[in-house]
C-alpha cells in the first residue's frame, strides 16, 4: 500500500463518490398502495358532495380528507417519512404556526364584527 492519496479516477470503496449516485430504494408496492389509498380518499371526498352533506359536517369531512391526502403525499412521495426530525420540523412547523395565527386572526375578526354589531347598530 502506498501512502499517496487515491487519484480522482480511482474509486475508493465506501467513499462518497461510490454512493453519490445510489439512493434509498423503496419497493414499488409501497407507492402503489399509497396511490390506491389516495384514490380511495379522493373518492370519499367526492362522495361528500354526491350525498349532499351540508354545513359543518361537509366542511369537516372535506378538510379531513384533504389533510390525509396531503400527509400521504408529503410523507411518502416527498420522502418526508424518512427524513430527520430537524428537517421535518423546519419544513412543517412554520406553516403550522401560520395556520394558528390565521385562526387567531379569524377569531379576532369575528369578535370585532360582533362587537361592532352590538354597539354601532
Q: Tell me about the largest β-sheet.
A: none
Termini separation comes to 92 Å
Give the uncertain stretches in residue-range form.
none
H/E series: HHHH
- Please, what is the average pLDDT? 85
Query: By helix and strand content, what is the structural category?
Result: mainly alpha
How many DSSP helices? Answer: 4
- Approximate strand percentage: under 5%
Helix content: over 70%
Domain module count: 2
Number of strands: 0
Q: What general form does the structure show?
A: flat
Radius of gyration, taken over Cα atoms and rounded to an integer in Å: 25 Å
What attributes characterize this protein structure?
121 residues, 2 domains
Report on this model:
This protein has about 120 residues and is mostly helical. The protein has two domains: about 1-80; about 85-120. Helix content is about 70%, strand content about 0%. It is built from four helices and no strands. The protein has helices spanning about 15-20, 30-50, 55-75, 85-120. Helix 2 (about 30-50) packs antiparallel against helix 3. It is flat and about 70 Å long. The chain starts with 15 loop residues before the first helix and ends with a helix. The mean pLDDT is about 85.
